[in-house]
Description:
Strand content: 35-45%
CATH architecture of the domain at 44-97 and 111-171: 3 Solenoid
CATH class of the domain at 44-97 and 111-171: Mainly Beta
Strand order of the largest sheet: 1-4-7-10-13-18-21-23-24
Helix content: under 10%
Number of helices: 0
Structural class: mainly beta
Amino acid sequence: xxxxxxxxxxxxxxxxxxxxxxxxxxxxxxxxxxxxxxxxxxxxxxxxxxxxxxxxxxxxxxxxxxxxxxxxxxxxxxxxxxxxxxxxxxxxxxxxxxxxxxxxxxxxxxxxxxxxxxxxxxxxxxxxxxxxxxxxxxxxxxxxxxxxxxxxxxxxxxxxxxxxxxxxxxx
Length: 171
């Protein structure tokens, strides 16, 4: 691994278990504690983004772009494929609070594990989209701005809305 990684002087690297490929550029961002973070070669993490493994792991493929003010929470595992474009203010949460028992405060019910999140290669996630635990987004899929992904999205599909629904396919 060469030393051609690019950092701005304001990055807050709060942990040591970060593996970066060649020519990774990280603008002022937070890489938090709690598990490994792997960022593939030629990838970009833009201003204000937060990568929080929270006891899980975050893997970002080669040539991926995580734009401004994204939140990536990887407690149950988060994998983003090669060449993915993640627009500003996208929230990806690979965990959720348990909340069924009304006799117990939500805070004390712990967390659910629906198996993490996998986003295939060459996906485009639009501004403000939310992707929730237990979902798989297939290769080449497009997720519209503001969509809330609660179920799997097939490869090369175009999905929009809340909850996200497939409205078309790439040709």
